[in-house]
Specification:
The complex is a heterodimer of chains A (about 90) and B (about 375).
Chain A: E1 10-12, E2 17-19, E3 27-30, E4 33-36, H1 39-46, H2 54-64, H3 70-86, E5 90-92
Antiparallel strand pairs in A: 1-5, 2-3, 3-4
Chain B: E1 6-10, H1 37-49, E2 54-58, H2 68-77, E3 81-86, H3 93-102, E4 106-111, H4 116-123, H5 128-138, E5 144-151, H6 159-168, E6 173-178, H7 183-187, H8 189-192, H9 196-212, E7 218-222, E8 242-245, E9 251-252, H10 273-279, H11 281-284, H12 302-305, H13 310-317, H14 334-343, H15 350-354
Helix pairs in contact in B: 1-2, 2-3
The chains are: A alpha+beta (about 90), B alpha/beta (about 375).
């Protein structure tokens, strides 16, 4: 199962970390690769610490991007995490 | 112009193994010529300023550098992500802990085979048992772990066991790379080039395993370019994304570029890295499309494979600026076709086969530089 459940606690996999340097776009660094992160992507991954649940992450995002449809935010977050899990960048607790 | 994304730091050409397909140049750099700790530190800071995100620490065997922990710390402090590409020889628990603490993000441990006899024959050294024990210890640390296996005619039949070993060792990724025929591997090509049947079986095995292990372990499979219809996009294009610094500080567009006659490399000890990337002769030589001959120049794939590999063109066709002979459209493709014909002899009746004298491969092992 690579799609997160409500109570899944995603965390960054070993060897994956966020690089935030002043004046530069935030980047998720991983073995032999990197993904540039937009603000919602960064917001999600900062909370991927093995402590926050998927439901909590979605709720923070829905608060931050209040103009977006809540169910759309939940779906996009699930797809984002699912893709990162398949690439072995995110694990679920 | 965009800067390079990754820096390949060839820290030394010294290595305790003697692999018959080693990618180091046949002319290796001596220990006395190696960059110092401080010089590498300057390289890492200049690279980060140029936009480099990843550093691949390789060699030779990077662990042969007594200052490896300091080098890792310097690169990490510069803001780089650190991949350590190693045979594991010379890595005990204390040193492993120190490297992880200094900032290694990802360890790629190479295996030569799944069984001890096969592995030790390829490496020309007894190393396999140590690697198995080390892999288990790496897994105890908070780093990504890739198991890397070079495959070829002599070990492809054991691909299912290679995949099983990677699962057992709980690798995050298994990288299965077919030998590329440069340097030492070209010397040993006849014994290394797989048959077409071996290749098609291995593709099916990999595909099934990728599906079975999706989300648990990634499997990358590098196919041998001799069997491709089109050439590989070597280094993702000359001077486009990667920069290699050899042990002596020469900056190269690829690790084999030294074989190209007349190629002069700027050295990081007397030129800024940015100037080398943007202006130096070696990085300009095959950058972009202006150098391309036909059929590349008008080929619709020229932006995908960039004419293939310049070094392979030199080694096989005698001209670095011709189309890679691995390409089926290349005027010199017959040299690759001949090698493939030798790797795929016509079938022989079982009775004849039993009576046939066979020469076991005789290897040319790479020695150690002074």
């Amino acid at each position: 199962m690579s799609r997160p459940g409500e109570t899944s606690r995603p965390r960054l996999a070993r060897g994956c970390r966020i690089s935030e340097q002043a004046g530069q776009e935030s980047t998720l660094l991983m073995p032999e690769g990197a993904i540039r992160l937009n603000p919602p992507g960064l917001k999600i991954l900062r909370q991927c610490d093995g402590a926050h649940t998927f439901a909590e992450i979605v709720s923070v995002l829905q608060g931050e991007f209040a103009a977006a449809a809540p169910e759309r935010v939940a779906e996009d977050t699930a797809v984002f995490l699912e893709q990162l899990q398949e690439r072995r960048v995110v694990d679920y607790e | 112009m965009t800067g390079p994304l990754a820096l390949i730091a060839e820290l030394t050409h010294r290595c305790p193994l003697h692999c018959v397909y080693c990618s180091n140049p046949v002319q290796m750099q001596e220990r006395a010529a190696e960059l110092t700790t401080a010089q590498w530190g300057d390289v890492f800071r200049e690279a980060a300023a140029l936009g480099v995100m990843q550093a691949d620490f390789t060699g030779g065997e990077p662990l042969a550098r007594a200052d490896l922990v300091e080098l890792v710390a310097a690169a990490r402090q510069a803001g780089l992500y650190i991949n350590l590409i190693t045979s594991g020889i010379g890595l005990n628990e204390n040193r492993l802990q120190a490297l992880v603490a200094a900032g290694v993000d990802h360890i790629q441990l190479s295996f030569q085979d799944v069984n001890k006899a096969g592995a030790d024959e390829i490496a020309g050294a007894r190393a396999h048992a140590h690697k198995l024990a080390l892999a288990k210890r790496i897994r105890q640390h908070h780093v990504a772990f890739t198991m890397n296996v070079v495959v070829h005619r002599q070990n492809l039949e054991r691909l299912p066991q290679i995949i099983a070993l990677a699962e057992e060792l709980q690798a995050d990724k298994l990288e299965i790379a077919n030998v590329q025929y440069y340097g030492w591997a070209l010397e040993n090509r006849a014994a290394l080039l797989p048959s077409e049947q071996q290749l098609s079986e291995s593709l099916a095995t990999v595909k099934a395993a990728q599906e079975r292990l999706r989300g648990r372990m990634r499997i990358d499979f590098v196919v041998p370019d001799y069997y491709g219809k089109y050439p590989k996009p070597c280094m993702d294009g000359w001077g486009r994304k990667l920069m290699l610094i050899n042990p002596a500080g020469e900056a190269m567009p690829c690790h084999a570029a030294g074989v190209i006659p007349g190629m002069r490399f700027a050295n990081v000890t007397n030129k800024p890295l940015r100037w080398i990337w943007e202006e130096s002769e070696a990085f300009q030589r095959f950058r972009g499309e202006a150098w391309m001959p036909e059929p590349c120049r008008s080929c619709e794939r020229r932006g995908q494979d960039f004419g293939g590999c310049r070094c392979q063109a030199l080694l096989l066709a005698g001209d670095a600026s011709t189309t890679d002979p691995a390409c089926s459209l290349a005027p010199s493709h017959h040299v690759v076709a001949t090698a493939l014909a030798q790797a795929n002899p016509a079938p022989v009746a079982a009775g004849d086969e039993a009576a046939r004298p066979v020469m076991k491969p005789s290897w040319v092992y790479r020695p150690n530089p002074q």
